[in-house]
Amino acid sequence: HWLMAWIGLEMNTLAIIPIISTSHSPRSTEAATKYFLTQAAASAMILFSSMINAWQTGTWDIINLTYEPAHILLTLALAMKLGLAPMHFWLPEVLQGSTLTTALIITTWQKLAPMSLIYMTLNNLSTTTLVLLELLSSIIGGWGGLNQTQTRKIMAFSSIAHLGWMITISSIMPNIMILNLTIYLIMTTALFYSLILSKSKTIQDTTATWTLSPALTAMMMTLLLSLGGLPPLTGFMPKWLILEELVAQNLTPAATVMVMSALLSLFFYLRLTYTTTLTLSPNTTQTKLKWRFKPNHTTLLMGASSTISIFLLPMAPLMLL
């Protein structure tokens, strides 16, 4: 029922507002306000599209979305909820105003509800609109991250680019979309945990990670390369399957644009990798004292998610035996 879906989305939005504004700084209050306004507008658009559809068809069933203006409006509303380009402007700003833990929640958990609605209404959504959104998202996700120095903003543009890849395949093979979403959630969780443990909020902070834990530094390097989609790491698997399917469906121009935009994303992942593992920035003696501060919490979740993010593709043939 559309009304239930709308209520669920509203509860989801209202629940995370206090979490964003917990640090009580003007920046976090601004981020919470931006998040609230955007999500409330998107929820209103979803309710409006479902009402138009109910008016035309006489049913509030989520699956039965047959009126064209209603499903175009719904596609745009869900894109705004997710942060797909060109409705992406709120995402980097909100993440930058939040703590790293809150940014992790926004980029992972908050994507599940809109993605599940997309999955349920795929047969009726406007394919043209979806293709335009995914191409824009993959290009802007790569381009926008190039000139960023804040790790949270980089992760925001990474999120936009990955969502572009998911939406690309959604109307062709929803199963690959689910696989891509699962792998993205695991990889993002692992990388955010690494950033939380090393307290790295800027690219400059990542240069001092080695003083805290050399093992964490190596882990971050492989996680970043996996997010960039380099074989034989896990992140290559969804990209490989998506490109294979796009070429099989004669969508070679779209596949070419996606590959070119993936190169843009790879550039800023490589830059982060380079600063984390291969450089020693100009520093004072104080920088080297970072090892004195023990990591505040080590979790089983980080170990598990990091392992899957790095070794899932090489281990896949063994799983099938």
Automatic annotation (TrEMBL):
Residue spans crossing the bilayer: 6-23, 35-52, 72-91, 128-147, 154-172, 178-197, 209-231, 251-270, 300-320
Coiled coil: none
Catalytic activity: a ubiquinone + NADH + 5 H(+)(in) = a ubiquinol + NAD(+) + 4 H(+)(out)
Compartments in which it is found: Mitochondrion inner membrane
GO molecular function per UniProt: NADH dehydrogenase (ubiquinone) activity
BP terms from Gene Ontology: mitochondrial electron transport, NADH to ubiquinone
Residues covered by the NADH:quinone oxidoreductase/Mrp antiporter transmembrane domain: 1-264
EC number: 7.1.1.2
All residue ranges annotated as the NADH dehydrogenase subunit 2 C-terminal domain in the record: 266-320
GO cellular component: a single term: mitochondrial inner membrane
Protein keywords: Electron transport, Membrane, Mitochondrion, Mitochondrion inner membrane, NAD, Respiratory chain, Translocase, Transmembrane, Transmembrane helix, Transport, Ubiquinone
InterPro entries in alphabetical order: Complex_I_Subunit_2 (IPR050175), NADH_DH_su2_C (IPR010933), NADH_UbQ_OxRdtase_chain2 (IPR003917), ND/Mrp_TM (IPR001750)
Pfam family, any one: NADH_dehy_S2_C
Membrane topology, from the record: Multi-pass membrane protein
PANTHER family: NADH-UBIQUINONE OXIDOREDUCTASE CHAIN 2 (PTHR46552:SF1)
Function: Core subunit of the mitochondrial membrane respiratory chain NADH dehydrogenase (Complex I) which catalyzes electron transfer from NADH through the respiratory chain, using ubiquinone as an electron acceptor. Essential for the catalytic activity and assembly of complex I.
Family: Belongs to the complex I subunit 2 family.
Name used for this protein in its record: NADH-ubiquinone oxidoreductase chain 2
Species for this entry: Anolis grahami
